[in-house]
Amino acid sequence: MQRKVIFRGRILPIALLLPQLAITFVFFFWPAGRAIYQSLLREDAFGLSQEFVGLENFQDVLSDPNWVNAALNSVVFSGCVAGLALGIALFLAVQADKSLRGVTVYRSLLIWPYAVAPAVSAVLWLFLFQPQVGLIGRWLNAAGVAWDYRLNGTHAMILIVIAAAWKQVAYNFIFFLAGLQSIPASVLEAAAIDGARPARRFWSIIFPLLSPTTFFLLIVNLTYAFFETFGIIHALTSGGPGQATETLIYKVYVDGVQNLNLGLSSAQSVILMVLVIALTAFQFRAVEKKVHY
Amino acid sequence: MATLSLRDVKKSFNATQVLHGIDLEVNDGELVVIVGASGCGKSTLLRIVAGLETPTSGQVVINGRDVTGLEPADRDIAMVFQNYALYPHMTVFGNMAYGLKIRGMARDEIARRVQAAAEILGIGPLLDRKPKQLSGGQRQRVAMGRAIVREPALFLFDEPLSNLDAKLRVQMRAEIRRLQRRLGVTSLFVTHDQVEAMTLGDRLVVMNAGRPAQVAPPMEIFSRPADTYVAGFIGSPAMNFIPASLDQGNGSARLPDGTLIPFADGPRPGTAGTPITLGLRPEHLEPGDGPGSIPLAVELIEPLGSETVVHGRTPAGMAVTARLNGAFSGERLPVRIAPAHLHVFDADTGRRLDPA
Ligand SMILES: Nc1ncnc2c1ncn2[C@@H]1O[C@H](COP(=O)(O)OP(=O)(O)O)[C@@H](O)[C@H]1O
Ligand SMILES: [Mg+2]
């Protein structure tokens, strides 16, 4: 039985909701509405006049090879970031779970990256990977790898993948560790008695039991890599060299803020908005339906 | 065909010693029950046999083979856990087949064995369900099934019935007993429930704080408890203990109020005046007046249907429990001690004193 809390009248509940609603409106619905409106308009080069062009901006965006390039970059980047961040976090969580003793120290150490501002972490990665002064950059060049992320697009992509994944590992780790610790020890002991060695126990028991967590994190990581990595890319590569690391979110910035093409940029924003809504809806539906053990 | 020997098994967790040297021989096909209060080290002992814990010293020998250093997988054992420990993401079939798959058994042989086990346990129609779709009793059966399909040398049970309701517990208890007889698998069964222990075991190990207080068949434990701990632990309601001392050439016990109770089976060893503890089960207090009768002031009456448990106090203020046939009501209950059923223990060591 669920007990309902009942307020008398309507004023109080509305008053309680108002601040939240106001914030949502001012910072989400209003700008989102402006973006949708703007995406249907075209401005002249001086910003003096606007005309209604319907879906023409969207047509332009989707047929632009630069946009397609950015979309591909986004897919590669997000896939690599999610894969790397999940893989490393799972590995670390399994190690931490084995020796529960040190776990608090371990946990706080691993949470740190999450609290570091993108620009700060970017500088940190620059210190490591800069070809002339960076620790790893110099070492790579000394070892005969012509490492320079400022000239080589693949190198640039690798760099932002590492930097973006590093930041997400901490978050994933916490969830994986919680997931691992919620698996009853006796289930793993039963598997050991049934004859399963550690590797088999991992793949046939632990991994399937973690799958709801993994799925949740996958969506979160993809969303993060798609939409929240502007700062890292901006600080490290600014989308270059060429457009090798220009992702969709970065292109919105380039077209809107640098090229001042508001209509085109808004159309791109709307596409991204639809994408993030779809991802989130998919996640909610899946979390509802997905197996709970 | 399997035997199990434990040789001076000790276990410490950091500074605390939990097991103080356990020796035990379990014969082929025998069901030995380890019973004791919660926290006395029963599970630890069972987990050492399973290979889930390593003993600090001592050996575990299965079928003459020292398995002390082996992984659980290499010991040819199966275990049923208190919380069943079923694999939540696998079907009932998958749960039972898991161990067989790992052994690389052929698919049709696996299916045949699982079917056979499901048949025995009456879970045939449930094979496609997941554990969370099962009741407690059904999960229990699946856990049993997972153990028996493996046809192991040794069954280990860690309080497998504790999570079931009373009625189901009695039913599963009988079923486990039947199954174990039928399959003839050597078994070690851990419980804190003395009734479970008495009804299931060929022999019992009564554990007291990491030491085996007595290892014997159930009726011997009941009729000749080795010390006051065993005497008080086995039997319900618990045995009455009365302080006394040896008198009349050690042929009688003298109660604090001077009453003399002659031993029916001869004098005990020791010097005159040695303090002893008399043990008398509640069912061996006979209602009746006359010489040697103790008038109890009744404090609480518990009617159990065919019997009545009466809690009372002696004139000296000692709490005594009596179990009477039929109904009882009243303020006073005179009872007589039946000397034939008297248990005599050394008051200092708690050990049983038998006639010299
Ligand atoms: N892994 C462990 N670490 C430390 N102490 C433990 C551990 N396992 C059991 N103990 C201690 O050992 C004692 C016996 O535990 P256990 O064998 O589970 O008792 P029982 O099964 O008889 O209730 C308890 O005091 C318990 O706290
Ligand atoms: Mg236990």
Structure description:
The complex is a heterodimer of chains A (293) and B (356). By secondary structure, chain A is mainly α. Chain A has a single domain, classed as MetI-like (MetI-like fold). Chain A is 74% helix and 2% strand. Chain A is built from twelve helices and two strands. In chain A, strands 1-2 form a two-stranded antiparallel sheet. In chain A, strand 1 and strand 2 form a beta hairpin. With 356 residues, chain B is an alpha+beta fold. Chain B has two domains: 229 residues, Rossmann fold; 110 residues, Nucleic acid-binding proteins (OB fold (Dihydrolipoamide Acetyltransferase, E2P)). In chain B, strands 6-7-8-3-9-10 form a six-stranded mixed β-sheet, sandwiched between helices. Chain B has a five-stranded antiparallel β-sheet with strand order 13-12-11-14-20. In chain B, strand 9 and strand 10 form a beta hairpin. In chain B, helix 3 crosses helix 4. The longest helix of chain B is centred in the middle third of the chain and has 18 residues. Classes of the chains: A mainly alpha (293), B alpha+beta (356). Chains A and B meet through helix 8 and helix 9 of A and strand 6 and helix 2 of B. The complex binds adenosine-5'-diphosphate (ADP) and magnesium ion (MG). Magnesium ion binds next to helix 1 of chain B.
Number of domains of chain A: 1
Backbone structural class of chain A: mainly alpha
Determine the mean pLDDT of chain A. Answer: 82
The shape of chain A is globular
Which residue ranges of chain B are poorly predicted, with pLDDT under 50 across at least 5 consecutive positions? none
Based on CA atoms alone, the radius of gyration of chain B comes out at 24 Å
Mean pLDDT of chain B: 91
Number of strands of chain B: 20
CATH class of the largest domain in chain B: Alpha Beta
The largest chain-to-chain contact, stated as pair and per-chain residue counts, equals:
A-B, 19 and 23 residues
C-alpha termini separation of chain B: 41 Å
Total beta-strand segments of chain A? 2
Q: Rg of chain A, please?
A: 24 Å
Report the sheet with the most strands of chain A, covering strand number, pairing sense and barrel closure. 2 strands, antiparallel
**Strand portion of chain A:** under 5%
